[in-house]
Structures
1.
Amino acid sequence: MRRICTIKTGHCGESDCHLELGYDETLAHLIYAGADLMLIPSRYEPCGLTQMIAMKYGVVPVVRRAGGLADTVFDANYSDQPFELRNGYVFDELTTAGLESALRRALGLWHGYPEYFWQLRVNGMRSDLSWRRPAQRYLAIYAQLRATV
């Protein structure tokens, strides 16, 4: 923690840097609203609300394939999902190279093909992240179990 405070003291007078050592709901929404990309390099992520909120704001998530992140973010280049369901960038290895590869692809699209980047934003905003589909699957499993009893 001391090292983080040193970094904050040394760099946060700059206009391009801000380090917040607490949670501020208003600031969180402002960050989502002003971002183009959201980097989420989680080692472990049981659910992943960050990327779901980001996508509703039109932010393209760049995530490590883990838990709920893998269930909700479909890679723009390498997913087997149709293009209209692709909504971000995914990397597998928790390494500098893995992260840089995904960021390079995301920034390349943002800079070189803004109309496709815009479509990823729209795809994310249209994502159905509700309980509707999982609930239907649970009901189908329940119906199968009842039929066998």
2.
Amino acid sequence: MTSGANLGRIIMADKMPSSSESVHLSRRIDFQTVNRAAMGILPALLGRWLPDGKKRGHEWVARNPKRSDRKPGSFSVNLNTGRWADFAQADARGGDVISLAAYLAGCSQYEAAAMLAKMLGLAGDAP
């Protein structure tokens, strides 16, 4: 569970850090822990990453910011599982928040996990 201070930092973040921002961790990244923490605040993250989206049932439906998408509908994220897909593109889909962050930031899943860990206060004493 994330502390109030960490949650405030995440909610106040304007966007997902770009892949050009260097994030170094002194130890291995526990992908499961990062995903679990990100799932706990997924609506807040999606509100920042996909601000034109709206909650529809158990889905966050938005325009895909990686392509010319005129209206929301084909790009969605399941708020219960973190699975996401752009049904207009066969290769734009993933099974968790880390893969979504990697897709949106245009970086590897490792880099996305490191950025999320830092955002969520899970990076420990990393520089």
